[in-house]
Amino acid sequence: MESLWMDFANSMWRDWKGGGPSVDRLEQQEWQQSFTAKMKYAVNQPDRTELERARLLRDRLLRYAENLAAGVLLKDSDIEYLNEVMAGGTVTRRLMAAGSALRMELEPAGSGWGQVLADVAADFARMLSEQDISRIRCCDNPDCRWVFYDDTRSRTKRYCDDKLCGNLMKVRRHRARRKAQAHKEENN
């Protein structure tokens, strides 16, 4: 399940293999342009204040996701913060024809990073109100911690990607068992 807020929260990239540097993609102009292009926005590079507000939102979204994954719900102060961020953007309501049906669309009326952050917070709020929040996960690879939505039937997905983080952790567990076994045999 792709979502705007998860893409934004995962802008803090960590070396999932471990040992490498972390990269704050929020600071990269290329990432900013790619992210806002997905939203169909053409905004300038954020100034220092906007970048700090973006980092604060990202860090809070990560904390909220970790809490939700642990079964801890948002506090009233968290909800107030999200409402403040969402108030930084405006929308125009449009009724749109979709074949023989009609649907209501919310189109951003503002522009700039205030609108971008408001839309990210709104996407998170929409998820809280419309999705099963017990499916929010953080990758069990301690070097990754990527946020994802567990859409498996069994609700047991532990890694953001079973082929990458899942295999890496399986190999690490296997090597740790072999090392412990060798150490045990050495001491006997």
UniProtKB/TrEMBL annotation:
<dbReference type="Pfam" id="PF11706">
    <property type="entry name" value="zf-CGNR"/>
</dbReference>
<dbReference type="InterPro" id="IPR021005">
    <property type="entry name" value="Znf_CGNR"/>
</dbReference>
<dbReference type="Pfam" id="PF07336">
    <property type="entry name" value="ABATE"/>
</dbReference>
<protein>
    <submittedName>
        <fullName>CGNR zinc finger domain-containing protein</fullName>
    </submittedName>
</protein>
<feature type="domain" description="Zinc finger CGNR">
    <location>
        <begin position="135"/>
        <end position="178"/>
    </location>
</feature>
<dbReference type="InterPro" id="IPR023286">
    <property type="entry name" value="ABATE_dom_sf"/>
</dbReference>
<dbReference type="InterPro" id="IPR010852">
    <property type="entry name" value="ABATE"/>
</dbReference>
